[in-house]
Write a structure and sequence with these properties.
Layout: E1 4-8, H1 12-24, E2 28-32, H2 35-41, E3 49-53, H3 61-69, E4 79-83, H4 91-97, E5 101-104, H5 109-123, H6 125-128, E6 131-134, E7 137-140, E8 145-148, E9 151-153, H7 157-167, E10 173-174, H8 176-184, H9 193-206, E11 215-218, E12 222-225
Parallel strand pairs: 1-2, 1-3, 3-4, 4-5
Antiparallel strand pairs: 6-7, 7-8, 8-9, 10-12, 11-12
Helix pairs in contact: 7-8, 7-9
Bound molecules: calcium ion.
């Protein structure tokens, strides 16, 4: 699973350049050219990082950033704001609004890529590491293998992606809709009950004997990878 970067930028030449370079670096990219369209999308899916232009039609980047920080689903979302030269005096205001970093246009693409990587690493060390491990469960992203207590756990592709997604955000509660969007992809027409079926399979595959079931059902909300419970 590649980290997903959402780009919100109304200058088309710049957004295409960003999309091209980010995809070449292995990121999954979604581009929006209006603040309000991005806000709608962010109610369905939370990317790993948001690249947000300051001046946007529909809803300004600064206002979108402020709104995202007030919602529990996005209060931790890494946000890098892009701004035109001359708006730099607004930098402080941007950071106060909750942006993690601030880049002034025109910027060099390699520098932006380095700042994205650094921001992702700070925000979520798990997103950039090869091996995710919690308790006695270990998932190797390069080899696509899962071990528990030293034994190999065989998982179907969907169960693997589900576990990888859960383990990259332990303790966080995901609704069935969020799981569908993030694990099955965006253009799915799958019933939400499918999620229950695959969570059931994942639990059976990964839990043996008296081992703790690491996937907790949160009533009325969804599921969470919660190793401690
Ligand atoms: Ca703009």
């Amino acid at each position: 699973m590649h980290p997903m970067v959402m780009v919100v930028e109304d200058e088309e030449a710049l957004s295409s350049l960003l999309k091209y370079n980010l995809e070449a670096e292995g990121y999954e990219v979604e581009v929006y050219n209006r603040g309000d369209a991005a806000e709608l999308r962010l109610q369905e899916i939370v990317p790993d990082l948001l690249l947000l232009d300051w001046m946007l039609p529909g809803l300004s980047g600064i206002e979108l950033c402020r709104r995202l920080r007030m919602k529990s689903e996005t209060e931790q979302l890494p946000i890098i704001m892009l701004t035109a030269r001359g708006e730099e005096s607004e930098r402080v205001r941007g950071l106060q609004t909750g942006a993690d970093d601030f880049i002034v246009k025109p910027f060099s693409v390699p520098e932006l890529l380095a700042r994205i990587k650094a921001t992702l690493r700070r925000a979520n060390p798990a997103a950039t590491s090869t091996i995710l491990s919690h308790g006695d469960i270990e998932l190797d992203r390069e080899k696509h293998r899962v071990h528990r207590n030293g034994r190999e756990v065989r998982l179907g592709p969907t169960e693997y992606r589900l576990l990888e997604f859960f383990m990259s955000a332990p303790g966080r509660v995901f609704s069935r809709e969020q799981l569908l969007n993030n694990v099955w992809g965006r253009e799915n027409y799958i019933d939400e009950r499918t999620v229950d079926v695959h969570v059931g399979r994942l639990r059976r595959a990964i839990t043996r004997g008296r081992e703790t079931n690491p996937v907790r059902t949160v009533r009325g909300a969804g599921y969470s990878f919660d190793y401690s419970s």
